[in-house]
Amino acid sequence: MKIKKLLVTGGAGFIGSAVVRQLINCTECVVVNLDKLTYAGNLESLAEVSDNPRYVFEQADIIDRPALDRILSLHQPNAVMHLAAESHVDRSIDGPGDFIHTNMVGTFTLLEAVRAYWSKLNDSDKADFRFHHISTDEVYGDLHGTEDLFTETTPYAPSSPYSASKAASDHLVRAWQRTYGLPTLITNCSNNYGPYHFPEKLIPHIILNALHGKPLPVYGDGQQIRDWLYVEDHARALVEVVTKGQVGETYNIGGHNEQRNLTVVHTICDLLEELAPERKSPDISFYRDLITFVKDRPGHDARYAIDASKIERELGWKPQETFESGMRKTVRWYLDNESWWQRVLSGAYKLERIGQ
Q1: Confidence of residue 355 (pLDDT cuts 50, 70, 90)
Q2: Rounded CA gap, 105 and 172, in Å?
Q3: Which residue, 47, 211, 286, 301, shows the most beta carbons closer than 10 Å to its own?
Q4: Residue 250: which of 187, 165, 156 has the closest Cα?
Q5: C-alpha–C-alpha distance, residues 185 and 131, integer Å
Q6: Is the pLDDT of residue 353 over 60?
Q7: Per residue in 88-98, pLDDT tens?
Q8: Where are the domains of the chain?
Q9: Once rounded to an integer, what is the mean pLDDT over residues 224-234?
Q10: 233: left (phi over 0), alpha (psi -120 to 50) or beta
Q11: Is 180 marked active-site?
Q12: What number is the average pLDDT over the span 106-117?
């Protein structure tokens, strides 16, 4: 299908902003970015497209049904990409309520608003409409073997309040497709990394701590395995799914890059030795000297790994970046864009938000 106007929820977040940039830079569609602007929403991540006439920003909460009704009626999108979510596992352990509220109740509210909007479209526009829900591989729990992979039919077994809330939202989307006929698609992705990543997440946290000479915390023994997906590869995949995917289907999106957490930290340290040796704290010999093992978090999954053969076979997508090339680009980006992350660390990025 040809997308003329697309509503993206959570478009000021890490993955959402990559999707918005991809859509503006590589398609001709109009993009309406709906974002509440919580702590992780940063309009500065969209500076390169914010003046484009095909880009519109709406500050709203997906819990706010009247706001959703107004935005849908005003902009008349022919597709919705739902990325708005609370997503940090550690925060979900400390305060699960926000995750239930946003990821479950918010998704329900959005589904109902979209269903009401969709039901009033003419038959042709109704058939062309798409609701694309973006989820995570964490809904599957973890893998204990070394060869098993998550497929689109792997049973759900979430381990954290975050993954449980995302699993629930996936089930809601499938139910609205089955019960009401809403034309939905679901994607489950592996761990994303890349430019504009909020500093609480592993890779940017390690990069910035290393540059400041602070300890590099590694949970447990650091042997947990994740499949790492460069965020711009993910954005390309999401555009492929919303335009070419089969209604009612699920597509797993992975980077084909399984790495142990400790290996990720070692890779960052080694890249910084090469790219920024002068930034190293004078009281250490190597960036690796900053690595500190800390108590593992509760319910920490051992291994995630995605079988992404379906999306490659059916839609022709596969990642362009290897772990090595993507990590080099990521570390280089943080070195070259210090003003962005300094404003995040200081909180200055919040001061220029609409309505504040």
Answers
A1: very low
A2: 10
A3: 301
A4: 187
A5: 6
A6: no
A7: 788 889 999 99
A8: 5-198+228-257+302-321
A9: 96
A10: alpha
A11: no
A12: 98
- The token pair that represents 262 in the structure block: 């400790």
* pLDDT beyond 50 at 356: no
Options 3.20.20.20, 1.10.10.10, 3.40.50.720, 3.30.980.10; CATH of 5-198+228-257+302-321: 3.40.50.720
d(CA 323, CA 6): 31
The amino acid at 110: L
From the candidates 162, 193, 196, 304, which is the catalytic residue? Answer: 162
Model confidence at 146, pLDDT cuts 50, 70, 90, reads: confident
State both tokens at 287.
Answer: 């960036």
**Token pair listed for 162:** 């975050």
Q: Which of 35, 58, 137, 233 is catalytic?
A: 137
| Mean pLDDT along residues 33-40 | 95
Query: Which member of 58, 86, 138, 301 is catalytic?
Result: 138
| Cα angle 183, 185, 191; round to 5 | 160
Whether 140 is a known active-site residue: answer: no
CA distance 338 to 346: 12
Q: Is residue 138 among the annotated active site residues?
A: yes
